[in-house]
Amino acid sequence: MDLVNQYARLNPFNAPEECFPAKASRTDSVESLEGRLLFAVPKKGRLNEATLDLLSGSDIQFRRETRLDIALVKNQNIALVFLPAADIPTFVGEGRVDLGITGRDQVAEHEAISPPTEDTGVEEVLDLGFGKCSLQVQVPEKGSIKHPKELVGMNVVTSFVGLTEKYFAHLEGLEHPNGVMNGDVPFKNKLRTKIKYVGGSVEAACALGVADGIVDLVESGETMKAAGLKAIDTVVDSTAVLIKSKHPSNQKLVDLIASRISGVISAQKYVLCQYNVERDVLEAAKEITPGKRAPTITTLDQEGWVAVSSMVEKRLIATTMDRLMVVGARDILVLNIANSRTG
After folding, report:
1. Residue 187: CB partners within 8 Å, gap ≥ 6?
2. What average pLDDT does the chain have?
3. In which element (H, E) is residue 216 found?
């Protein structure tokens, strides 16, 4: 991407006319974004597909034109801005974008480099429950290093320089009382551990002789094992999160989006379990299916029997059904939940 188009992507309000298609001028772009809530979403990578599914389930309707990083939502006063996940905390934290979805690891990295103030920084709205991973300190499996402190003074490669510097500053006893060290150049220069940045293929650094250890994201651990590495500590655990700026342009719309997304997450996490049971054993059945708030109980047209309806976590439904059968529940049905609004 040339500099003109990069500038258009990062600052569409001030981009030159040549950044826009023949039928769309800069004025058209500014007018189309005027008054809209700006919502940043990952443009690619491990969080992209799950985020798009979440938006679809939340009835956020849009069409993204090929190679364009801005899409107008058809049924809400929102514009989606497609950005690298690593950049989203910066745009949201500086108030350039109102809302965003990214990894908690990226938020922590941003705050390690640019500590939040009263007016800057992000606020976490929801844990979205997908994209789970851990930022871990890793060393060669067959090497002699067993503890992170043994890496002090050595070469460490990472894509998360801010968090890695903060981690090793703590090991070296250099961390500030408020936990922040970045931006203080004289203090930073006291760090004995040599931390080097690479943008990708971090796991290859040890094998190539560039590093004695790395700090990198681990999901399943398969890539780590294939590279002959082992984890010796965790810097931060991460999952996808919905974040907002401290001064969003439309708090009411932010709350609406958060409510919809929360409903979709609940629908994905739970199923509706319905069954019939004799009233004499109802209390035992209710202990198995307490529901989100309480189960719904309906009297059946058969003396001594009731119908029970309750939300149950999907991952627990098989064992829940087994337990219900043991206490005497019958006619057990499990229904998928398309969407929900739960308190």
Report:
1. 174, 176, 181
2. 87
3. strand 213-218
Q: Hey, which residues does 297 pair with through a beta bridge?
A: 308
Pairing of strands 213-218, 155-158: parallel
Residue 156: beta bridge partners?
Answer: 195, 213
Print burial letters for 193-225: b (CB count within 10 Å at least 16), e (below 16). bebeebeeebbebbeeeebbbbbbbbeeeeebe
Q: How far apart are the first and last CA of the chain?
A: 45
Two structure tokens written together for 277 = 């049971």
Separation of alpha carbons 49 and 64, rounded Å? 14
| Residue among 125, 74, 75 at smallest CA distance from 98 | 125
**If you ran DSSP here, which 8-state letter would residue 148 be given?**
G
Residue 279 burial by CB count (10 A; 0-12/13-18/19+): exposed, middle or buried?
middle
**Residue 225 is inside which H or E element, if any?**
helix 222-226
pLDDT single digits (tens) 178-193: 544 444 544 556 889 9
Buried b (16+ CB within 10 A) or exposed e, 19-56: bbeeeeebeebeeebeebbbbbbbbeeebbebbbebbe
Closest CA to 43 of 64, 60, 57: 64
Rounded Cα distance between 317 and 315, Å, is 6
pLDDT value at residue 46: 85
Is residue 142 within 8 A of residue 228, CB to CB? The reply is yes
Tokens representing residue 300 in the block: 């059946």
Task: Read off the pLDDT of residues 217-265 as tens digits, 9 standing for 90 and up.
Answer: 999 899 899 999 999 999 999 999 999 999 999 999 999 999 999 999 9
CB 140 within 8 A of CB 226: no
